[in-house]
Design goal:
The chain has 150 residues and is α+β, with helices and mostly antiparallel strands. It has three helices and seven strands; from the N terminus they run βααββββββα. The chain has one domain: START domain (Alpha-D-Glucose-1,6-Bisphosphate, Chain A, domain 4, 2-Layer Sandwich).
Length: 150
């Protein structure tokens, strides 16, 4: 199991960041080229606890993958934890720095199943880099779409 964590400062209100983080139809717009789509299999309760999402993504060498993730420990507007079927655990938390500034904290413990487990170190590094890029792209997407979420 490989672990990594980072924080990204985003020059947007936490409410906008939270809304976009939970707008799964928009993920392919800012999470590309890694995430190619997300579908919701189970919406969970009114706060999103128990939500089950199927995340389609690309890995090196053109490999296509799907991750089935359960979202739990939701604190609306603050963060959540997700767990995959392969036992990867990720946590996202938003820290309000000011009215128009947010620090996104992200950590993940990557656990891959066979045969990907043979390349866990390299794949975890790839995933970590693209997850960080996704969060930076999310910030840029919000800058490029000042009307969101109207």
């Amino acid at each position: 199991m490989k672990e990594y964590a980072y924080s990204v400062d985003i020059p947007h209100p936490a409410e906008r960041v939270w809304t976009l983080m939970n707008d799964y139809d928009r993920w392919p717009e800012f999470a590309k080229p890694m995430v190619t789509g997300i579908s919701i299999a189970e919406p969970g309760d009114e706060t999103g606890n128990g939500l089950i999402r199927h995340v389609r993504f690309k890995l090196p060498l053109g490999i296509q993958g799907t991750s089935i993730e359960t979202v739990h420990d939701v604190e609306p507007g603050v963060g959540y934890t997700y767990t995959t079927q392969s036992r990867t655990v990720g946590k996202l938390r938003l820290e309000k720095l000011g009215p128009d500034s947010t620090r996104l904290h992200f950590e993940e413990k990557v656990k891959l199943n066979w045969p990907f487990s043979w390349f866990e170190c390299r794949l975890a590094k790839f995933i970590a880099n693209y997850n960080r890029k996704t969060m930076l792209n999310m910030s840029q997407w919000l800058t490029d779409h000042p009307e969101y979420p109207d």
